[in-house]
Structures are given as C-alpha cells and as structure tokens.
Amino acid sequence: MDEKNTDEEIVVRMVEISKHFPGVLANDKVNLTLHRGEVLALLGENGAGKSTLMNMLVGLYRPDGGQIYINGKLAEIHSPQDSMALGVGMIHQEFMLVGNMTVAENIILGMKGLAVIPPMAEIKAKITELSKRYGLQVYPNKIIQELSVGEQQRVEILKLLYRGAQILILDEPTAVLTPGEARDLNEIIKKMLSEGKSAIFITHKMDEVMEFSHTVQVLRRGKSVSVCATNTIERVQDLANMMVGRDILFSLERGQYKPGEVKLEAKNLVIKTIGGERNVLDDISFQLRGGEILGIAGVAGNGQQQLTEALTGLLHVSSGNIIINGKDLTNKTPLQIIKSGVSHIPADRGRMGVVGDMSVGDNLSMKKYRTEELSNHSIIKRGLVRIFAEKLISAFTIKTPSQDTSVKFLSGGNIQKTILAREIDSCGGILIAVYPSRGLDVGATEAVRQNLIKQRDMGNAVLLVSEELEELLMVADRIAVMFEGKFMAILDVKEAKTEEIGLLMAGVQRRDV
C-alpha cells in the first residue's frame, strides 16, 4: 500500500467517538482514519462495536462524544441524507430495495430535487453509463424481484454511485454471493478506487481482508486495539488472532463418517407460489441419516428457506412427503415437529429466532420451559431457569450485560449465539441449521462448526444451509446444490470442488440427483 501522510488525502477522520446503549458501552473513544483511494477493513468480534461505529458515520445513530470530519471539515450528521450529501453511503447486509419496482425507480427513490415527473429517459441513460463504466451489468428496466442476489447488490452499489458517493461502507459485502460474484465485486471496488473513491468494509472472512484491503483496523469490546497495513500481515491466522486474542483452528477434527439410520426424508417436495404460477420448491428428494451432515449450498433466494420452513412445519407443502424418524409428518404443526426431535436455527434471527422484548434468559429457555427440567406441573421454576440460562451463556460465550437484558439490545452476532445455544441444547436427534455462522466472528464461527460436528459425531442428523463454501467443505459429509428450487447435484464432499459448486450455484450445469 502506498504511504498516505498528507492531510489532503484523508477523507474520513473519526475522533474519540463514544456511544452508550442501556448497560453497554458500544464504542469507547474510537479513532478511525480513511484515506482517498483506500480500502479499510474493519474487524472485530461480535459486539465489538463495528456496526455501531459505521451507523454513526452514516447518520443512523448520533455519537455521545467525539467528532467526525469529512474531507477535513467538521461534519454534523443527523441522518443518512446528511451523510449522503457529504458523499458517504452504506450498503447494508440486508438490501434496502423495493421488490416490485424497477432498478431505475429504486435508484432514484427518495432523492430530493427530482421533478414531479422525473426524466426517466435521462435517468436510465445515466444508470446505463455508470453500469458500463464500473462493469456492474444491470439493466434499468428490470424488476428487482427478478434479479439474483448478486445483481441486487450491484443495484445497491449503483444507487450510491448515482447519488455521488465517494466513500462507500459495505457490511459483509460477499456474504450472499457466489465465488464468481465475489471476484466480480473485487474488480468493481478496484475500478472505484482508481477514480479516487474510498471504502470501508466489515467482514468476518479473513481471505477477503487479505485480498481487498489496504489497512486493517480491529475493534475489541468497543475500543480500537490495532491498526496496521494489510501487507504487513504474514498469515491469516495472525489476523484472526488480532481479532479474538487467541489462535483459531482453520481445520477441524471429526470422527469417521459412519451414517446410520435415516432420520429425515423428503420425497418429491413441491411448494408453489401463492398464485400457483410457479414452483419455489421443485420435486426435492433426499435422505438425511444419523451421524452425517448434509450441506445445502446455493445463493440465497433459490429455495433453501422454503425447504427448511417446510421441514419444520412453518410452510405448507403443495405435494410430496416429509418423513421424520419413520413417521409421515407432512404439513404437521411446528410444535409436532419440535416434539419429534427437530431443532431449527432459522435464517431470519430477528423475526423468527428470538422474541426481542423478552430477556436473554427467557429466550434461552423457550424450548425447555415445558419440561421437568425447568417446570413443575406447568409452573415455571424461575430459579432453575436462571441456572440453565447462565450455563448456556457461559458455554456459548454470549456477551450480555445480564441474562435479564432484553435480547433486542444484543449485537446481531450475540443474538445468533442465543439461538444457537437454545437449539443445540434442545436437539432431539435432528438439527436444521440455516446460515448458523452468518454474522459471527472467526472465534464464534469456529465454535459453531465444532458444535455441528459434535452433533454429527453424537449420531444426530444435521442439515446445514450455508452460502460459505469453505464452511460446507470443512463441515459437511455431502453437499446438495440448489438453484431455482431444484437440486442441481448431491456431491460427496471428498469429490466436491469449489469451482464446480460455484457453477452449480449459478445454474450452469447439472448432475443427475
């Protein structure tokens, strides 16, 4: 990385930034500097304060202390509109797009200064020009819901470029992309940097940090603990150690693959859209045995969520059968599925995984409160609940001021840990895990993967949905690849290759399944 010493090259300076939430000091006098043409990787464990810091830079939060300077001038940022006016924009992990509107309509949505009837021909021409300049390959007239996840991310980038952003903040930018799309994003970022733009990205993928960034800044417990040039870091392991303060295992020990009896079977499952015009799940069949992990690979939106919701009783199956431990439980209630021994880590942790206004302790006990372990003749024993909750908080290193804290006040990663703790503890033989390590730091991700393997080695059956090919190749015994509601192939992990899986995820080729 070139040396950047002059004040003129500094585009963002955050000085002594602090932010408090109830019972939590999220940021403690954090300093951050971003130079023109630079990519800064912002790293840290879950709850370290990364997202809070960036949300203050884009006007979603107000700092309790400190100053923010943009291009050398003190900035008063009260809203995202203020930050955008200063050339700062953020692409969130959950895209902010309206599905039934066109690309062009989304890009100008909410912009000030537009005529009552916007000049759409001019707008589309500018979008097309930007798309060609940066290699984004997006068509202005396309409807958002018809686009792939990778294409939707390009729309988000175009939206910021159209509005004049010079400083881009990307939150987990490749979490929902195929390997090919991630490489394309890298090229797009390089093109923007060559024009003097700058970027900050939050990620937990160590290889991305080494490939994308010029500078690494690490937060730990709300404080900045390290800033260094990326090219001074010799090993990925060193980077992980900076984050969590200990060595991380990048390979995991596991017992021999000895699949047992079939615990879960899907036969010709079909789920139609509400109008019945197409199948979102199209003739899916597979068997999942005790003592094995079946991975489901695919870009988000290709039927993985519908499959897991059907298996857990949350979504009605149009046709086909779901057999659990030899019993046909097709279209049974979620409670009946739970009682059959199925645990479920859902994709949407906020909407389906926790009750935000309830305490951490109560969320941890939601699967056990009916049992004699925590209740007596339907009367919950609060003392036992507290002991139980403390055990899981400790075992899964959930960072919370106390077990009485409302779970909505935890960081996203610690909310995920709360769900993981509850579901793994209550697993009765079958664990369905949907993106269980999404949003988790490297230390927590290591623990999740170890827990999945432990379940498998105990003889339980694990269905793992993940967009992380590295995770699937490390943890799974077999990998099924989904595209547009179909299984493109089911591969033995020993024979699976990253490039082939990437092609299957993009629908390029198909094997008999």
TrEMBL record:
GO molecular function: ATP binding; ATP hydrolysis activity
Pfam families hit by this protein: ABC_tran
All residue ranges annotated as the ABC transporter domain in the record: 12-246, 264-509
InterPro entries: AAA+_ATPase, ABC_carbohydrate_import_ATPase, ABC_transporter-like_ATP-bd, ABC_transporter-like_CS, P-loop_NTPase
UniProtKB keywords: ATP-binding, Nucleotide-binding, Repeat, Transport
Keyword Coiled coil part of the UniProt annotation: no
Protein name: ATPase component of uncharacterized ABC-type transporter
Gene source species: Sphaerochaeta pleomorpha (strain ATCC BAA-1885 / DSM 22778 / Grapes)
